[in-house]
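Researcher: Re-running this chain for the archive, since the previous output was lost when a drive failed. Same request as before.
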Amino acid sequence: MGLAGTADKWRGAAGHLWLTARALFLLAVLFGLTAAARADGLLGATGYKMAGDATRIRIVMTFDREPDVKWFLLRGPNRLVVDLPRTRFALDAKDVKPRGLVRAVRFGDQGQGSRLILTGKGPFAVDKLDVLKNDDGGYRIAIDMSAASEREFDEALANQSLTTGSTVSADKGGRVGTGPISAPGHRFTVVIDPGHGGVDGGAESAGGTVEKNVTLAFATELRGKLAAVGKYDVYMTRENDVYLTLDDRVRIARQHEADLLVSIHADTIAVKGLRGATVYTLSDKASDPEAQALADRENLSDQFAGMKIEDDNKEVTDILIDLIRRETHGFSMSFAHTLVGQLSTSVGLINNPQRSAGFKVLKAPDVPSVLVELGYLSNSKDEAQLLSADWRGKAAQSITNAVALFAAAKAGARAGG
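Model: Regenerated structure tokens:
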């Protein structure tokens, strides 16, 4: 072996020793923190994780022993406050970075005790807050939160005296509604979702027409026509050129207790000569390859802003939510059928215009939802129509007529029930 080989061997041995020393140092630090927490009588918070999105999220905080937990809600802004015994927080800064439904995370000492404060992106429901024992002997707090309306948050505040301090969750039947049925006095509510926005421009025509601008112009026209009826509350997920994640769009619909979500799009397609409008609903299996391809493209929207996409839909397995989804799907299909009928009188439709695929933006379990593909920017005739104020007015009026029929049918079903 030459001198170079000997040097490499010594470098390898030195690197191994350095890694071993570093691992021992980190273990010593962790042991020291735990020992210090126990020595001064403080509860030790040793870890924090969040998983989910803007519609539903789970927070888990781990402890070295069982914590005595009290919790309550505050508004202005909407917050969940978790009171703990005096706690030493040994948490990684990157783990407590807010995400999804949680807009801000704060924690610290309050003198007589410690506190964790979770601020939501608007109103939310605390579906569960449990203290559980870990296999390694420690404990954890598991918190499940989901997007809710202001009315639901206010009801939770009003009932707070019955639940404050309890770590036993309410029965799921009391936490989740029995379908897309709103509060007494609630006006039929439509949320219009102009597809794409901000850094996500969506499709673009050969002439430079960008989908995000087409969808916003049409959504604004539709909002005006629906508002003019005077019977509906109408909201838009965005009113200007901003980026929204797909789950933020669903969150906004749920927080407004929407009776209907209409997502507006104008895609491109490689099939030569294909043109016309299409109405899509949600399904696990796409109705055709073109619908699947479109859903795949739209579901990639979050990647435009560098978002990490995580498919965390374990709640779908919950039987009650599954039943709600079925009822919601029935309403969605009913509206889609009505909408196709109305659009056929004013705008051109593709063959088999009522289609389905797994669009993420349509996945609110309790909001009937459709995605309207107004036409294809890859077709010059469709592009000309999409840029025409007269055509937009006719198409928006057809959707308004369909909403009127759907709202009347739902009101009649409730009265009959």
